[in-house]
Design goal:
The protein contains 7 helices and no strands. With 143 residues, it is mainly alpha-helical. Helix 2 crosses helix 3. The radius of gyration is 14 Å and the shape is globular. The chain starts with a helix and ends in a 5-residue tail after the last helix.
Length: 143
């Protein structure tokens, strides 16, 4: 499913609104994923503390949101913009690509909770479609 011009406009406008809180959103998203889907902890077993809001979770949440920001910046070529991240996750980190969907599901939940007045059905649909494209782009090098 491709993004329409309207979807892109909605995503970039919503991102502009939330970008100032990206680090907190990333931490909350990763904390939620590690709690709700404990099997994802296996990728982070080397961290000294996997508890919600811990320093490693906050740091990686910031990194994840950097990837989302990169995708927003490359919204007209998400696959090209995320090619290096796809390569790293496939060959170096060996993350099961199903986890991208789990992460982004949690991202949507965090957005809905933090921005109940701004996360309208139109925003939800556009952001969900965008995140589906990001997950596909991150999975590109697995094929």
């Amino acid at each position: 499913m491709s993004l329409t011009k309207k979807d892109k406009k909605v995503v970039t406008a919503f991102w502009a609104k939330i970008a100032g809180n990206a680090d907190e959103i990333g931490s909350d998203t990763l904390s939620r994923m590690l709690t709700v889907y404990p099997q994802t902890k296996t990728y982070f077993a080397h961290w000294p503390d996997l508890s919600p809001g811990s320093a490693p979770v906050r740091e990686h949440g910031k990194r994840v949101m950097g990837g989302v920001a990169l995708a927003v910046a490359n919204i007209d070529d998400i696959f090209g913009g995320l090619l290096a991240l796809s390569e790293r996750h496939a060959s170096e980190l060996r993350v099961d690509p199903a986890n991208f969907k789990l992460l982004f599901h949690n991202f949507l939940v965090v957005l809905a909770n933090k921005y109940p007045n701004d996360f309208t059905p139109d925003v939800h649909v556009a952001v969900d479609k965008f995140l589906a494209q990001v997950a596909l782009a991150l999975s590109e090098k697995y094929r």
